[in-house]
Amino acid sequence: MPWASNKTARLDLCNDLYLSATYDAAFDQHLFTLDEDYRLVLGPALKAQGAQPSVQAYFIEKEG
């Protein structure tokens, strides 16, 4: 369930992650997630052959 439609999650003070607009949009599109140590983990869509090269390059260098 998306965060915006989950009122309980939105009001949970322990459920905070502040992202820039770029990362927020990418996160909402499931292009990446974060592991338990807050490291960037790319989703399959970013690693796919058809992904936009500039977007891949931007995120791939930040993975991990």
Fold and architecture overview:
This protein is mainly α and 64 residues long. The protein has one domain (3-60). Helices cover 39% and strands 9% of the residues. It is built from four helices and two strands; from the N terminus they run H-H-E-E-H-H. It has helices at 7-11, 21-28, 44-47, 53-60; strands at 32-34, 40-42. A two-stranded antiparallel ribbon has the order 1-2. A hairpin with a 5-residue loop joins strand 1 and strand 2 (40-42). The chain is elongated. The two termini are 25 Å apart.
The percentage helix is 25-40%
Please outline the major beta sheet: 2 strands, antiparallel
Q: Specify the structural class.
A: mainly alpha
Give the low-pLDDT segments.
none
**Mean pLDDT across all amino acids:** 82
Could you tell me the number of beta strands? 2
Compute the separation of the termini in Å. 25 Å
> Topology as H/E string?
HHEEHH
Shape: elongated
Radius of gyration computed on alpha carbons? 13 Å
* Main sheet strand line-up: 1-2
| Beta fraction | 5-15%
Number of domains: 1
Number of helices: 4
